[in-house]
Amino acid sequence: MILFINACMRGAEISRTYKLCLDFLNGRENTVIDLSKASPSYYTAEAIIERDRIIDSGNLSLLQDAQKFAAAEEILIGAPYWDLSFPAALKCYIEHICVRNVTFKATPTGTVGLCRAKRLTYITTAGGYIGENDHGTEYFRGLCKFFNIPEFQSFRAEGLDIEDNDTEAIMEQTTKKILGGNFKC
């Protein structure tokens, strides 16, 4: 089963990123965490103290987002390209799933990822051209290493709002890459 982290903040009706995510899912069984409807808040000092208290108590059932992420067989993250990366709601979600003894553990030689997923896919779209500034892709590539997820792939449709660009053709080309499993590890 695929865990779909939906950070397509404009909603299913408008988001081009969401459309590409549906192409990727293509009828495959999935569970959705929809950050456009209910995103976790950022951590305050008090919230971090509470989270650490929960972790230290061993009652990790209170950290459901992290448990879902750690248990997922495959993960899809869909997020538009905003401000050189992705929406803030997705960063808050990542803060909530980076939980010691759930998604990673600390050892004397460094951290070890505890996630089951064999692959994480990141899909993004941009009105302009991303070029070398695809910091979202690099962020999730790094998280895969941290969580011990062996395969990473990303797909992006860019230049969608450039005058004279054929938006439909760009989207179709990206869909073909997605359906073809064109890995970019």
Number of helical segments with 4 or more residues: 6
What radius of gyration results from the CA coordinates? Answer: 17 Å
> What is the CA-CA span between the terminal residues?
21 Å
Shape: elongated
Biggest sheet statistics: 5 strands, parallel
Question: What integer is the average pLDDT?
Answer: 92
Which ranges are low-confidence, i.e. pLDDT below 50, for 5 or more consecutive residues?
A: none
Structural class: alpha/beta
What sequence of helices (H) and strands (E) makes up the elements? EHEHHEHEEEHEH
Report the portion of residues in β strands. 15-25%
Could you estimate the helical fraction of the residues in percent?
Answer: 25-40%
User: Going across the major beta sheet, what is the strand order?
Assistant: 2-1-3-6-7
Number of strands: 7
Spell out the blueprint of helices and strands:
Layout: E1 2-6, H1 16-25, E2 30-34, H2 45-57, H3 64-71, E3 74-78, H4 88-97, E4 104-107, E5 110-113, E6 119-125, H5 135-147, E7 151-157, H6 167-179
Explain what this protein looks like in three dimensions.
The protein is α/β, with parallel strands linked by helices and 185 residues long. The chain is 36% helix and 20% strand. The chain contains 6 helices and 7 strands; from the N terminus they run E-H-E-H-H-E-H-E-E-E-H-E-H. It has helices at residues 16-25, 45-57, 64-71, 88-97, 135-147, 167-179; strands at 2-6, 30-34, 74-78, 104-107, 110-113, 119-125, 151-157. A 5-stranded parallel sheet has the order 2-1-3-6-7, sandwiched between helices. The longest helix is centred in the first third of the chain and has 13 residues, at 45-57. It is elongated, with a radius of gyration of 17 Å. The chain starts with a strand and ends in a 6-residue tail after the last helix. The mean pLDDT is 92.
